[in-house]
């Protein structure tokens, strides 16, 4: 408006009004919701999208248009979802509380951004969803509904949940969000599979002995330890220098963990004060630390990681082809041979699980077969454009959509896989520029699952 000096006043006023009204009518940035149905978590993305699996779900940028191509209709939709944001696990919540106590007992100063710690009261719970985590799941149900709206008319999702309380509650919250978006009542959980020793559960790993115990169960931690020794010392020196403490490298990681967990403890998921103790670079290093844990603990970096996902992928192939499930891995054949607990002719499925299990499923599918193995001593990339990121794959309320498309003039249906809104290229089955493979080529590509992965190595003694 500065250059409009010669413009008649009235016109200038009109222009001014029409240019500024839409903006001032919107809520000021500070009070806009951090978590949203369409985009997920969007406050401070340069740090909050780098919290590994503790990130709140956000819509990951996709190189391929996520909308189905023209002349294609969705003919099948399924989601495998992680539970929503939670309090720390029981063992961690005790350790975090002790770390805060230690800082408060031994600090000689609380300067600058550390000032809040002086009177901070640790009161996080354990294991269960927080209100912000519940909202993530309500939003996720609405997100799914909005995406598949036209296709979903007259259909009810078949819903399975792993049996842990936070997963079951997540499934119910998802159904609530779905129902709200659909303006009608929708189904309930159809099958809940217990998480317990000796139970075959395709939504929760447990029974592959050599994966659960022994050397393979530790390689994720070992890779993380090497990276910790590299990235934490400078942070440790800075933090201890400011506080006058002698926090260990592990306690520095706990202090970083407290950023996502205290953010999740805010009912509206406002970025917490803990988050401001660290820089953008440090959050990228932390994200890489968490990614290493997933990659080597449960993904391609673990010789038996992908094998943990074959049970679920076998169920997915059965649903996609409407053919009886081929029993592999941790499938419970009693459940999966019964149409009441494993129907084959439904078109909409929703399953609820955990990050580690989903990491195994993504690996079993072969989605990251061409990803360079993660180095334990240098960050190669903190996202999937060049590498692998736990924040892009298994954040809280993560969702893997598998859809079929029926397209004009095509003899066969197509399959697409969309991980947190990012369309996967599916190079291994001839994925086209829309990320589509024909159903038969997709099934063919899943030979790892169809031949039982390395399940036989679960029980051999070495
Ligand atoms: C901090 O000091 C209090 C009071 O002396 C004590 O009860 C508590 O155990 C201490 N906590 C830690 C983590 O050292
Ligand atoms: C399989 O599922 C059935 C039916 O729920 C259950 O009774 C049985 O204990 C399960 N078996 C295993 C090994 O998980
Ligand atoms: C760390 O990476 C190096 C180089 O790839 C490898 O030789 C070593 O075994 C790795 N160590 C762990 C514990 O992951
Ligand atoms: C459970 O899994 C084990 C290991 O794969 C298998 O031997 C057993 O038959 C399965 N049980 C059922 C009920 O499917
Ligand atoms: C991924 O790699 C594994 C191990 O090399 C292989 O067995 C599997 O077929 C590959 N998956 C796909 C989809 O290419
Ligand atoms: C992904 O990582 C690359 C290189 O590490 C970086 O340049 C790019 O900005 C990142 N993209 C997103 C969306 O974070």
TrEMBL record:
Which family, according to UniProt?
Belongs to the histidine acid phosphatase family.
Q: Which residues form the signal peptide?
A: 1-26
Annotated keywords = Disulfide bond, Glycoprotein, Hydrolase, Secreted, Signal
Which EC numbers does the record give?
3.1.3.8
What does the record give under GO molecular function? acid phosphatase activity; inositol hexakisphosphate 3-phosphatase activity
Q: What Gene3D superfamilies is this protein classified in?
A: Phosphoglycerate mutase-like (3.40.50.1240)
- For this entry, the protein name equals Phytase A
- Which reaction does this enzyme catalyse, per its entry? 1D-myo-inositol 1,2,5,6-tetrakisphosphate + H2O = 1D-myo-inositol 1,2,6-trisphosphate + phosphate; 1D-myo-inositol hexakisphosphate + H2O = 1D-myo-inositol 1,2,4,5,6-pentakisphosphate + phosphate; 1D-myo-inositol 1,2-bisphosphate + H2O = 1D-myo-inositol 2-phosphate + phosphate; 1D-myo-inositol 1,2,4,5,6-pentakisphosphate + H2O = 1D-myo-inositol 1,2,5,6-tetrakisphosphate + phosphate
Q: What class of enzyme is it?
A: hydrolase
Its main localization is: secreted
The protein's superkingdom reads Eukaryota
Annotated compartments: Secreted
Query: Which cysteines does the record link by disulfide bonds?
Result: 34-43, 72-407, 208-458, 259-275, 429-437
Provide the active-site residues from the annotation: 83, 355
Q: Does the keyword Oxidoreductase apply?
A: no
Q: Which GO terms describe its cellular component?
A: extracellular region
How it assembles, according to the record, is: Monomer.
InterPro entries to which the protein is assigned, alphabetical: Acid_Pase_AS, His_Pase_clade-2, His_PPase_superfam, Histidine_acid_Pase_euk
């Amino acid at each position: 408006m500065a250059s409009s000096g010669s413009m008649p006043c009235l016109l200038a006023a009109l222009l001014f009004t029409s240019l500024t009204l839409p903006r001032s009518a919107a809520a000021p940035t500070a009070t806009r919701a951090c978590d949203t149905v369409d985009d997920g978590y969007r406050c401070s993305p340069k740090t909050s999208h780098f919290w590994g699996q503790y990130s709140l779900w956000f819509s990951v940028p996709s190189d391929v248009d996520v909308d189905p191509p023209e002349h294609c209709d969705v003919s099948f939709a399924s989601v495998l979802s992680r539970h929503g944001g939670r309090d720390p696990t029981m063992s961690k919540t005790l350790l975090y509380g002790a770390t805060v106590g230690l800082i408060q007992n031994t600090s000689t100063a609380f300067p600058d951004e550390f000032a809040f710690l002086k009177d901070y009261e640790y009161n996080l719970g354990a294991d269960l969803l927080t209100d912000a985590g519940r909202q993530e799941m309500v939003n996720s149900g609405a997100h799914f509904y909005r995406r598949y709206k036209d296709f979903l008319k007259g259909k009810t999702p078949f819903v399975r949940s792993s049996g842990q309380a936070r997963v079951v509650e997540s499934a119910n919250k998802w159904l609530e969000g779905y129902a709200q978006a659909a303006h009608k009542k929708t189904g309930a959980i159809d099958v809940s599979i217990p998480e317990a020793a000796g139970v075959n559960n395709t939504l929760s790993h447990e029974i592959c002995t050599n994966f659960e115990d022994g050397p393979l169960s530790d390689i994720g931690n070992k890779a993380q330890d090497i990276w910790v020794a590299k990235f934490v010392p400078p942070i440790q020196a800075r933090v201890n220098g400011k506080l006058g403490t002698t926090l260990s490298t592990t306690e520095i990681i706990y202090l970083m963990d407290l950023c996502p967990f205290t953010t999740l403890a805010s009912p509206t998921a406002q970025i917490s004060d803990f988050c401001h103790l660290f820089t953008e670079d440090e959050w990228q290093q932390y994200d890489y630390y968490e990614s290493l844990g997933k990659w080597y603990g449960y993904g391609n970096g673990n010789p038996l990681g992908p094998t943990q996902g074959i049970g679920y992928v076998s169920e997915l192939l059965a649903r996609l082809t409407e053919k009886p499930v081929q029993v592999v891995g941790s499938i419970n054949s009693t459940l999966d041979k019964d149409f009441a607990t494993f129907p084959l002719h439904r078109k909409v499925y929703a399953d609820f699980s955990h990050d580690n299990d989903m990491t195994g499923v993504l690996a079993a599918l072969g989605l990251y077969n061409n990803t360079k193995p993660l180095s334990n001593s240098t960050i190669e990339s903190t996202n999937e454009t060049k590498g692998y990121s736990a924040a892009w794959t298994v954040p809280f309320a993560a969702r893997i959509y598998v859809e079929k498309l029926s397209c004009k003039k095509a003899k066969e249906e197509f399959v697409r896989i969309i991980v947190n809104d990012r369309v996967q290229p599916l190079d291994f089955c001839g994925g086209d520029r829309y990320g589509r493979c024909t159903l038969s080529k997709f099934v063919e590509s899943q030979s790892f699952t169809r031949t039982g992965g390395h399940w036989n190595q679960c029980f051999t003694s070495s």
